[in-house]
TrEMBL record:
This is Ligase-associated DNA damage response exonuclease. GO terms for molecular function: exonuclease activity; ligase activity. SUPFAM superfamilies: Metallo-hydrolase/oxidoreductase. It comes from the Bacteria. Keywords: Exonuclease, Hydrolase, Ligase, Nuclease. Its EC number is 3.1.-.-.
Length: 330
């Protein structure tokens, strides 16, 4: 069997006819396998959903109990129709997985979803899986994206807090994954004081802590006088009246996109923090070198740059050009 017959793009998303399922479909389908719970990968309305326990829990928290007809917790290896399916840690957010699809006497395709190679204290690390075809994201698929060590960015944040002790530091971080990652990094750097969080973050922060991810003391950023210098909120909150309760704040955002100065200026970020839960250029190309697949399929970002690198590395590559995927987490 050819790889392109085992898994191929349709209007609804990547489809496997041998198992009659889609991976991260954009539209409601009879059966969906979900890599992680960000809304550009996890949609509601499917007949049946298979994912890790954490991903199913988070989908339920975000979408409600009836987000799918039925759900099934993914095992390490599962037989679906004529293929074997595996879920392998992706290192992106809690519960995130790569999904491997292997045909009998045929190729193995690994769909990475979103992934990161940098240690993240809030989720299981990426596990390299040998494969014939690797489907990679390309969110930051250009050489300009060379992310610093997150610890150095946290050191910048703490230095700013020490320099301006009377100014609240408001940091924008996406509600699922990035906010918890940022909090965990701040705690690892020795900041034990209470951290204030916007109400939109509470449910997921509580869930992370229930799963054994220590985030320390978190207090609501709802009162007129918030007794914490560090305040974390979703980026959308910075366009609402909520932000006006803080006097002379230091505004910052935690995102891989903060590596682009124009993006930082557009957001009005006085303190841009380059912290990402995705691979940068070196980690992406390093992963392709490590896995050495026969073919690379590229999606979800800057496809052309990655495909050009593959050509120079003499690896067959092609764009999937899936329409509708955006980077929700950054």
């Amino acid at each position: 069997m050819r790889a392109e017959d085992l898994l191929f793009p349709t209007k609804a998303g990547l489809y496997c006819p041998e198992g009659d399922f889609h991976i991260d479909p954009l539209q409601p389908v009879p059966r969906a396998l979900i890599t992680h719970a960000h809304s550009d990968h996890a949609r509601m309305g499917h007949g049946a959903v298979m994912a890790t326990r954490e991903t199913l829990d988070i989908m339920r928290l975000r979408m409600g109990e009836g987000f799918a007809g039925t759900t099934e917790i993914a095992g390490a290896e599962t037989r679906i129709g004529g293929v074997s399916v595996g879920f392998h840690p992706a290192g992106h957010v809690l519960g995130s997985s790569q999904i491997s699809v292997t045909a009998v006497n045929g190729p193995r395709i690994v769909v990475s979803g979103d992934y990161s190679r940098h240690p993240n204290p809030t989720c299981a690390p990426f596990v390299p899986v040998a494969c014939d075809v690797f489907v990679t994201e390309a969110t930051f698929g250009l050489p300009v994206f060379n992310f610093p060590d997150p610890a150095t960015e946290i050191a910048r944040l703490l230095a700013s807090m020490a320099e301006f002790p009377d100014r609240p530091h408001l940091i924008g971080a996406y509600a699922l994954g990035k906010a918890q990652h940022l909090i965990a990094l701040v705690r690892a750097a020795g900041h034990d004081a209470p951290i204030a969080i916007h109400g939109a973050l509470k449910t997921l922060c509580d869930y992370y802590q229930d799963c054994g991810v220590p985030l320390g003391e978190l207090i609501p950023a709802t009162a007129d006088q918030v007794p914490a210098q560090l305040v974390i909120a979703p980026p959308s909150a910075f366009a609402s009246p909520w932000v006006q309760r803080f006097r002379d704040p230091v505004i910052g955002f935690a995102s891989g996109w903060m590596a682009v100065r124009a993006r930082a200026r557009q957001r009005g970020a006085e303190l841009p923090l380059v912290i990402s839960d995705h691979v940068d250029w070196l980690a992406l190309t390093g992963t392709l070198t490590e896995l050495s697949p026969s073919e690379v399929w590229v999606t979800h970002g800057t496809e052309d740059g990655v495909i050009r690198w593959c050509e120079l590395a003499q690896i067959a590559a092609r764009p999937l050009r899936l329409v509708g995927y955006e980077d929700e987490a950054e």
